[in-house]
Design brief:
The protein has 207 residues and is α+β, with helices and mostly antiparallel strands. It has a single domain, classed as Gcn5-related N-acetyltransferase (GNAT) (Aminopeptidase), CATH 3.40.630. Helix content is 36%, strand content 24%. It has six helices and eight strands; from the N terminus they run E-H-E-E-H-E-E-E-H-E-H-E-H-H. The chain has a six-stranded mixed sheet, sandwiched between helices. Helix 3 links the parallel strand 6 and strand 7. Helix 3 packs across helix 6. The termini are far apart.
Length: 207
């Protein structure tokens, strides 16, 4: 399957193929703070489950032109007591040379907003294993409660009072705070302006 970014340019966040997700994760799913980052598609049997429909995973990729800069995987799970879904942020991985640029926050905010606004899911709760410091900080900004002092380090937000639509709007506002700058830089870059700051390139490629 062709990569969906082949005919595009500039900044965008789009659904990602399984192959592109796994290839990127294989290269960059590691953090200095916590070591290897596990994903729901590390094993071949997990891929088979996805393709057979046994599990539902939503894969997102953040691109700068033809460069895949960050990926995210979320898993909706039907709640047994009703028709609503709880959604787990399975993993978010940023290119090793493009970290600390807000890309992780952008792709997660986009994914949350996209899934929360899906009427077929009727999302009632988002949660995540909050072990990475950057993830904990991001989730806190989006209104997630802190991980408990003991037990599994889960951060979560219950949408029963706030509502999925309001949470989606909050995420879109968070995303807009970051992406306006990115889009401006993309326009300047395409116009070959000297003022352009090519955020999608590793720092050493600008020297």
């Amino acid at each position: 399957m062709a990569d969906p970014a082949d005919t595009k340019s500039g900044y965008r966040i789009i659904p990602l193929t399984v192959e592109a997700f796994r290839d990127f994760a294989k290269r960059y799913a590691r953090s200095e703070e916590i070591g290897p980052i596990a994903t729901a598609l590390d094993k071949d049997d997990q891929v088979r489950d996805l393709k057979s429909g046994a599990v539902d995973l939503r894969l997102y990729g953040l691109y700068g032109c033809d460069t895949l800069c960050a990926i995210a995987c979320l898993q909706p799970v039907a709640v047994r007591t009703g028709t609503d879904h709880a959604v787990k942020l399975d993993s978010v991985v940023v290119h090793g040379q493009m970290r600390q640029r807000g890309l992780g926050a952008m792709i997660v905010a986009h994914a949350f907003a996209d899934i929360a606004s899906d009427p077929d899911l009727d999302v009632s709760r988002f949660y995540s294993h909050a072990v990475h410091p950057a993830t904990v900080k991001l989730l806190k900004r989006l209104g997630f409660g802190p991980p408990p002092p003991s037990g599994a380090p889960l951060a979560a937000i219950d949408l029963s009072e706030k509502g999925a639509a309001a949470f989606s709007d909050d995420c879109r506002r968070t995303l807009a705070q970051h992406e306006n700058y990115m889009k401006v830089q993309c326009t300047l870059c395409r116009n070959r302006s000297r003022r352009a700051r090519q955020w999608c390139l590793p720092d050493d490629s600008k020297k």
